[in-house]
Amino acid sequence: MLSSVAFLSGPLFLTPGEWTSTRSLITAGLLFSLAGDFFLIPSRSEFYNANSNPQQEKKISVSFQLGVVAFAAAHIAYILAFFQDNEIISWGTFATTFLITMAVAKWLGVIYPPPHSSARSNVLDLDLPADMKPLVLVYATIISVMFATAASTTPVDVSSRWQYQRVFGAAMFVASDVYVAKDAFKKSPGSRGAWLIASGATLVQADSSFEPANFNVTAALKVYGLDTSSIPALTNFSKRSTESACLAACASLESVFGSEKVLAQENTSYASFTDAFWSEQQAEVRPSCIFKPGVNTDVAIVVLLSRLTRCPFAAKSGGHAAFRGASSSPGGITIWFTDMNEVSLNEDHSVASIGPGNLWGQVYKALEPYGLAAIGGRESSLGVGGFVTGGGISFHSNLHGWALDNVESFEVVTASGRIVTANATHFQDLYWALRGGGNNLGLVTKFNLYTIPSSTMRGTTRVFEEARLPEVISAFASVSRGATSDGNAQQYVAFARMQGVSVASAELSYALNITDPPIFKPYRDIPALADTTESRSLVQYCEYINNQNPSGHREMYWTIATQLDESFALWAAEYYFKIVPQAANITGGNPVIIYQALTEPMLANMTKFGGNALGLNTSQGPLILFNMAFWWDNAADDNAVYAFIQNYYKVITDEAKKRGIAHQYVYMNYGSQFQDVIAGYGVDNKARLQKVAATYDPRGVYQTLQPGYFKLNGAPVQY
């Protein structure tokens, strides 16, 4: 019994990671085993007396019955745990193992053995009372089912365990029951059955670490068929400099995958990569090489090679971040997902499997023939990867929430090269962390997103003169609060200088093709300088928005969030128009302030599937999300742009704090390279993210070797 208590402490206290349904079942099984040990204590003196006096009739006691029932319940819990933590089952193996186990039980004499006094004996030479036979038959059947389940199922995270760990644990249970049977019905007390039961249960469950302390990168590469001793570039390279490490890593990748998959700077296709970035700062980055994986195992190999050589890396999905190094690694390896561009549907079309190399325009075009879409970007050139893991506001977010709240599962390559599927039932902690955690937990190689119906939409761009600011802000607040009654509406308002005129431009979308939806009446009541209203497909609408935001400029974003307060929103817009002349000398300068609402329906959807990492809830809303965006032409003006935006950011942040409406949240997809996004999720969520990262990436690969973009402990590395 003491050993059962000792082994019970493993699942309860020592196994890392979040609590799961599988762990709950294992723990329940151990508790039942502990109870079984307890109930067998009085039975042991009965067995001893009966064995000491062969003439005494053996009778089944209540204590013994309770013990057997408790152990049977334990085995049922383990069976359920095996099925819960199961990738695939071989029913042929199950049936064969079950029949063999039952035959062995009969041979040993556990199932209906003849009386000890009969001429025909059994292997264990058991003397089983007649009234015990039905109970023991049921128990033996449960044991056989457990052993068959162990032999025929495959754990979801099988690569973290010894291949036969589950079968060995179940076999230990079978052995322990043999000892109990001999102890009870033939041999003297003192067998080690209880110890074996406890150890068997622990062996079935034990997985002390997602990445073992003795993890070996070279051995992990061999799992993927890569023998480092056969690659010349890896035999004599020096880790003393990043340059030599990356030369070795890139040469190794080229020797394995070929020059079509590994682009060096002299490769003619190298320019096609740099041209695919949205901002000029990102396009300026020159990686040592560009790797184009085709399947998830290719991604695992490049992560492991980075670990082996200590060459930094970055990953590019769409490349729509503004700042240098966000999705390209200066002098390192940049993983370009362009060839991982799958878009497919499951059988009932409820889930779309989307590769990280897709842009949202490609996704929508692939799903449009089915009358479907996914919660995705509002510009066709946005990439899937960073958009989803950072948040993801869509045209349908008031109906269904953000993109990260509509993920069925992630296929992700972890720091050890293991490829797992994280969802609401398996690797729940990783699933939670990927929904807002950015690139800090792994490289996602497949996004399985819930689909939504898609039809023709109604879209309007209304432009107002500066004098109409109070009315525009009032309309913005009205539509923001009205989302609770009409989730089809979506909006954002941009404040800008157009050809020397200060204007407010409202983008009003409606998920249905309805003329003049009532929710937008406050905007229609304001006289407009211009109005473009059209019915469009989702594909067409995203291309329209994309054309308003061209690539090839120097770019900067900065963001804050506040409570939805009309007077503050008006003050912040008026202050922007007051200071915007200060940017007049910046060549090609175009500063824009954009307001978006984090509505109550959006916030309510953030509780789906166990919630996300953002730290937002309905009690805090609605909120205004401010995006301070600026594009310009010349690198010589970089510092002037930074100073302009930082000044605006500081002034409105201080004012929001003074009014008591400031909010800590920082939206990753609009964040500046100078902002600590993860801190904006709150102390508890930041600590939880760090805990998850420590479980799946104990050596900090995605913090140190992938230093670009927003890290768990602060702003991105400044290149």
Structure overview:
It is found in: Membrane. Residues 283-454 form the FAD-binding PCMH-type domain. It is a multi-pass membrane protein. Belongs to the TMEM86 family. Belongs to the oxygen-dependent FAD-linked oxidoreductase family. The protein has 3 domains: 2-205, no CATH class; 214-454 and 692-719, Uridine Diphospho-n-acetylenolpyruvylglucosamine Reductase, domain 3; 457-691, Vanillyl-alcohol Oxidase, Chain A, domain 3 (3-Layer(aba) Sandwich), CATH 3.40.462.20. α18 (469-482) crosses α21. It starts with a helix and ends in a 15-residue tail after the last helix. It is globular. The protein has 719 residues and is α+β, with helices and mostly antiparallel strands. The longest helix has 32 residues, at 21-52.
How do the strands and helices of this protein lay out in sequence?
Layout: H1 2-14, H2 21-52, H3 62-84, E1 88-89, H4 91-108, H5 133-152, E2 153-154, H6 165-185, H7 193-205, H8 217-223, H9 232-235, H10 242-257, E3 262-264, H11 270-274, H12 280-283, E4 289-291, H13 296-309, E5 313-316, E6 333-336, E7 343-345, E8 351-354, H14 360-367, E9 372-374, H15 384-390, H16 397-400, E10 407-413, E11 419-423, H17 428-434, E12 443-453, E13 457-465, H18 469-482, E14 489-498, E15 501-510, H19 521-524, E16 530-536, H20 538-547, E17 554-563, H21 566-579, E18 590-598, H22 600-605, E19 623-632, H23 638-659, E20 662-663, H24 683-696, H25 701-704
Parallel strand pairs: 4-6, 5-6
Antiparallel strand pairs: 1-2, 3-4, 7-8, 8-12, 9-12, 10-11, 10-12, 13-15, 13-16, 14-15, 14-18, 17-19, 17-20, 18-19
Subcellular location: Membrane
Family: Belongs to the TMEM86 family. Belongs to the oxygen-dependent FAD-linked oxidoreductase family.
Organism: Aspergillus parasiticus (strain ATCC 56775 / NRRL 5862 / SRRC 143 / SU-1)
